[in-house]
Amino acid sequence: MTLTTRFAPSPTGPLHLGHAFSALLAWDMAERAGGQFLLRIEDIDQSRARTHWEEQIYDDLRWLGLSWPEPVMRQSDRQSAYDTALDHLWNLGLLYPCTCNRKDIAAAASAPQEGAPLLGPDGIVYPGTCRPLSDLDMSKRSERPRGIPLRLNMAAATKQAAASLSGGVACHFVEDGHGLCQETGHITRTTDQMVQTIGDVVLSRRDMGTSYHLSVVVDDADQNITHVVRGADLFDATPIHVLLQLLLGLPTPVYHHHDLIRDDAGKRLAKRDDARAIAKYRQDGLSPADIRKIVGL
Ligand code: GLU
Ligand code: ZN
């Protein structure tokens, strides 16, 4: 299989140094292996995605010397693929509707008997208010509801996954970069770890009918991505992705999480940090080689 990497930006602001680092790493990895580099526009959040940012992404990446096959995959065109995956998980009895808002969740998670609220990859670990109390009788289940958030029942999902893996683990993947705490190599998570530190994540949001986790998994599989290169801030979400791959019968790529580019004060660069926008460096007369030097490539 051809080594295939991708860069998957969200067109919600200018590309900054951190994005350039990610894109160049993925590009270099494909180049070295005689493989393929793909681009994907992650624009499921239509309230924040803007066409002019998308245009600027293409422009900045070309300026950096990157190229990719057309047409570019855009998540806003792919709802039917996401629906198929959600239907599959719904039919496995692993999703349930949730109408809690942020305030409800914060209140339930900080109830005295709960202890301090735990933070997972998506914020507070969901306290389970809407989770069905007993296993739902599949025959009584109707069609998957639309227009309402759907959560993954993590206990049920990991139990199902663990049944097909050995060693009592619920997920396993190979990390050839590292996470925020330098995790690397063969990474495993048990059912208990996933329930306690991640919990019932939302897989279909009310406003978009999908979620980052669901879309990224379906898209990486459809683009035959063999190596996912991205920032270490997404390492903690990776067990969710690997679990979904198992449940959906999709292959698990190799993951390569990289250091985050920080500013001179050691602070993580935010998208709003326009001073670090590639466009700004271009205006100031820097070259693509200068950008490579700045990010340490
Ligand atoms: N779209 C995500 C971002 O802009 C990247 C997702 C990924 O690489 O998995 O941060
Ligand atoms: Zn709820």
TrEMBL record:
Q: Which residues, if any, are the signal sequence?
A: none
Print the keywords alphabetically: Aminoacyl-tRNA synthetase, ATP-binding, Ligase, Metal-binding, Nucleotide-binding, Protein biosynthesis, Zinc
Q: What class of enzyme is it?
A: ligase
Q: In this record, what's one Pfam family? A: tRNA-synt_1c
Keyword Protein biosynthesis included in the entry's annotation: yes
Keyword presence, Ribosomal protein: no
Q: What is its EC number?
A: 6.1.1.-
* Protein name according to UniProt: tRNA glutamyl-Q(34) synthetase GluQRS
